Amino acid sequence: MKISFSPRADRDLEGIFSYISLNDIEAARRIIMRILQSIAMLEHFPRIGRVGRVANTCELPIARLPYYAVYHFVDGTEIEVIAIMHDRQQFPPNG
């Protein structure tokens, strides 16, 4: 399975890195690496996520972190990561 990232997911990763790196750049790097490693598992195990809160999406909780990836199947060979959310954020956001 090929994995792609939407522009929004790219912005989410950049935002997470920017926020955490204000206090600890090494922690920010480790967290982004863990998120990306977790998402990479979808390449071989595309159904490990839970059913998403939005129709036709899935959510992959990131182990030991307060984040989850929202994704959907583009076709039989590609998964698109739509967003990376903090557990306290709602997807899709209201408003």
Report on the architecture of this protein:
- This protein has one domain (2-86): YaeB-like fold (2-Layer Sandwich).
- The chain has 2 helices and 5 strands, in the order βααββββ.
- The chain has helices at 7-21, 25-40; strands at residues 2-5, 50-51, 58-61, 67-75, 78-86.
- It has a 5-stranded mixed sheet.
- α1 (7-21) packs antiparallel against α2 (25-40).
- The model has no long low-confidence stretch (mean pLDDT 93).
Topology, pairings included?
Layout lengths: L1 E4 L1 H15 L3 H16 L9 E2 L6 E4 L5 E9 L2 E9 L9
Parallel strand pairs: 1-5
Antiparallel strand pairs: 2-3, 3-4, 4-5
Helix pairs in contact: 1-2
Class from secondary-structure proportions: alpha+beta
- As a whole number of angstroms, the C-alpha radius of gyration is 13 Å
The CATH superfamily name is RelE-like
Number of domains: 1
Distance, first to last CA? 33 Å
Would you tell me which CATH topology applies? YaeB-like fold
Strand order of the largest sheet: 1-5-4-3-2
Shape label? globular
Number of strands: 5
CATH class: Alpha Beta
N-to-C SSE string, H for helix and E for strand: EHHEEEE
